[in-house]
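Worked example

This section walks through a single chain of length 180. The input is the sequence exactly as stored; nothing has been trimmed or padded.
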Amino acid sequence: MLSVCLVAAFLGWGLQAHAPTQTLLALPVVTLLASACSVDAVCHRLPNRLLGATGTWLVGAAALTALTRILACGTAPADAVWPAARALLCAVGASGVLLVMAVLPSGLGLGDVKLGAVLGGWLGQLSAAAAVTGLVLGFLLGGVAAGLLIVTRRADRRDHLALGPYLATGGWLAWILTLA
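Given that input, the structure is written out below as tokens.
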């Protein structure tokens, strides 16, 4: 149900923003990330199959988009491939930063690292700033949620909080803000 609601919201927003191509490429990402983050919220695990399927979709979509730009639009190959290359660089950068944080005693898991790579690849196709914005918003949302849980005494500092849903929400917000 969550996936259906998110897809409907993204479809409406993307078409309203006159970005039908980016919207169609984002719908499977939104659906798969909603499913993965639902599992993370309950089990504190981000499923490799869902993150892998999302990454595979992103690679295929980036390759198809570059090929379409070259063949149908007559764009120079270097210009057509740049969004895919930027997405790859953002994915590597995001996962690298999160991997360093996961190695430190922070409670961040490797599923969050893989999610960061997926978000970097998705948002990096739009811009590097979108990828950074998505991660920063995700951490801010997670921090605010953790603070509220502590203030309301529903959790304390030793409790674990699934970061995946907040990272994904930050990515979704960054996508919306980038298209606005």
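What to look for: The helical segments are 2-16, 20-43, 48-71, 77-103, 110-124, 128-151, 164-179.
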